[in-house]
Write a structure and sequence with these properties.
Helix 1 packs parallel to helix 7 and helix 5 packs antiparallel against helix 6. By secondary structure, this protein is mostly helical. It has a two-stranded parallel ribbon with strand order 1-2. It is built from seven helices and two strands, in the order H-H-E-E-H-H-H-H-H.
């Protein structure tokens, strides 16, 4: 792959993860709305919580994909969190976090088409959650969000990865074409110099060599100013991916 400054695609792997960790872990808006029978903090005389909930068990966290009432309104480990390998199996979870209930890791869609289809299904599920809110069914709404949120994250990751792969393929093809063209130009210059050497002698050769050196220096300066791989097609793909990334951040943090 081409070595270059980080594109929006490359930057997203770190920025999205850190952004989600900071925002989701500090968000108390959704828990305050959805909590009905469980709580992570016992607050006497809390008008939001019924008195019966004050004696229920407090859970610190759940794994993504754990669809239980106990997991409504508490922290969920993101599907692409750096800690995911430590909870990938039930045995590993017992070693590092024995108090958590293990559930199978959320499966990523295998293809771009599968990811888009899953996002469309998630949109329908969110419409259903909106109807549950209108009916006052906060528990049902919470369970729906527990189900849809990790699916959105996994599908969004596959979409972004697909755009990144497509952009890299376009950039690599452009760079290969640039190198091939430059090699052809260099070969043509060498052929011209050889012919001139035969016709004009060494003095003229020296002048031609000086001119060639000047041209090479000029080409080097041009290479420093522009990246041959930054084609309009590659840039368009990366800008689309960047907009998708921003929308995905907003959606997941809202959920």
């Amino acid at each position: 792959d081409i070595r270059r400054n980080k594109s929006p695609i490359e930057h997203s792997k770190n920025s999205r993860r850190s952004f989600l960790h900071r925002t989701i872990s500090k968000s108390f808006l959704l828990p305050s709305i959805l909590l009905t029978t469980t709580t992570t903090t016992i607050i006497p005389n809390n008008p939001i919580l019924p008195s019966s909930s004050l004696s229920s068990v407090a859970n610190a966290a759940c794994l993504s994909g754990d669809i239980r009432t106990e997991c409504i309104g508490i922290y969920k480990l993101p599907v692409d969190a750096p800690e995911s390998p430590y909870v990938a199996s039930e045995e590993q979870l017992k070693l590092f976090a024995p108090d958590l209930k293990w559930v199978p890791p959320v499966e990523y869609p295998r293809t771009y088409a599968d990811a888009v289809r899953q996002l469309n299904e998630a949109r329908d599920e969110l419409e259903g959650a909106r109807e549950l809110i209108a009916k006052g069914d906060m528990k049902g709404t919470g369970l729906a969000l527990l189900d849809v949120t990790p699916k959105v994250s996994a599908s969004g990751y596959v979409v972004l990865r697909t755009f990144g792969d497509a952009s890299n393929e376009v950039r690599n093809a452009a760079m290969r074409e640039h190198v091939r063209s430059k090699n052809n130009n260099d070969a043509a210059i060498l052929t011209t110099v050889s012919l001139e050497e035969e016709k004009t002698g060494s003095d003229s050769i020296g002048d031609n060599n000086n001119d060639d050196n000047d041209n090479d220096a000029s080409d080097a300066n041009n290479d420093d100013d522009t990246n041959p791989s930054s084609t309009p097609e590659a840039i368009a793909l990366e800008l689309k991916a960047y907009r998708i990334e921003l929308a995905l951040n907003d959606l997941v943090c809202t959920l």
